[in-house]
Amino acid sequence: MRAQVLYPTLTAYGRHQYYCAPRSLVSLTFTPLHHRHVSPPFLNLSLFTAFRFPFFRMEQSGPTTTGKKKSMVENLKRYGVISSKKVAEVMEALDRGLFVPVGSSSAYEDTPIPIGYNATISAPHMHATCLQLLEDKLKPGMRALDVGSGTGYLTGCFALMVGAEGRVVGVDHIPQLVDMSIKNIEKSVAGSLLKQGSLSLHVGDGRKGWGEFAPYDAIHVGAAASEVPQALLDQLKPGGRMVIPVGTYFQELKVIDKGDDGSVKVRTETSVRYVPLTSRDEQIGGF
C-alpha cells in the first residue's frame, strides 16, 4: 500500500524499480534509484542528498562480511521490510558483496549499485519485498523464473529457497551480465545448485520467458510492461504467482495469481516507477 505523503514525494530514477514504503513504515514516500540513470529536470538533487534513504540507510556493523550481512538483514527487519524468517535467512546466507562490482563500499547498504550496461543491482529492500511476495511459491521443489536477472543475486536467493529439488532460471538480454552472474553465483553459497543444474542463467529476451523449464510456480519481472506479456502468463503454472510492474508513466506493481482452473486474478501491491521492459538495444543505448 502506498504511504501517506506528508512531505513532497522524493523521486529518483533508474533502470528497474522504484519503491514506495509501506504505510506502517514511514510517512514520507521515497523511491530509491535503480538501474538506468536518468536525471529529470524536476529532480531536486539537494533534497535527494539531504534525505538520501533516510530510513533505510544500512549501518555497517563490524569489519567482517558476516557482521555486515547480519546488520543489513537486521536493519530491514527493524524497519518492517522483512517479516519472514525464511527470507531473512536466505538474504543473510547469500553474500550480496559477491554480486556488486569489486571495490564497492556500499554492498551492504540499502541502495542500488551500478553494475554497467545502464543497469544496477537493486537495493536490498526491493529484493526482500519481492522475495516475500513470492515466498509461498518458492518452497522446496518449486520452479521460478527471474526476468532481468542482472548480476544474479535475486536469482540465487530463489535457488536457495526452492533447493536442489527445485528449478530456477534467470534470463537477461545482456550477455556480459549473464557471464558475470554465473561467476558470482559460482563463488557463493548457491554455487552447488548451479553446478548440479537446478539453477541456470541464460541470455535471452525475458519478455518471451524461458519455455524450456516452464511452467513456473513463481515469475519475477524487473522492468515495467505496458501490458503483461502473454508468454509469461502462459508459462505461469496453475496455482502460481507473478510479480510484475505494469504501466507506462503511471505504473503499479501487480501481483498475478493463476488459479488451478487457469483463471487469473490481479491485485496491486503498490505504486511504482520502473523503466520499460524493452529490447537489449534500447537498454544499452551507447554502450
UniProtKB/TrEMBL annotation:
Catalytic activities: [protein]-L-isoaspartate + S-adenosyl-L-methionine = [protein]-L-isoaspartate alpha-methyl ester + S-adenosyl-L-homocysteine
UniProt KW Methyltransferase keyword: yes
InterPro entries reported for this sequence: PCMT (IPR000682), SAM-dependent_MTases_sf (IPR029063)
CDD domains per record: AdoMet_MTases (cd02440)
EC nos: 2.1.1.77
Gene Ontology cellular component terms for the protein in this record: cytoplasm
Stated family: Belongs to the methyltransferase superfamily. L-isoaspartyl/D-aspartyl protein methyltransferase family.
Protein name: Protein-L-isoaspartate O-methyltransferase
Organism: Microthlaspi erraticum
Lineage start: Eukaryota, Viridiplantae, Streptophyta, Embryophyta, Tracheophyta
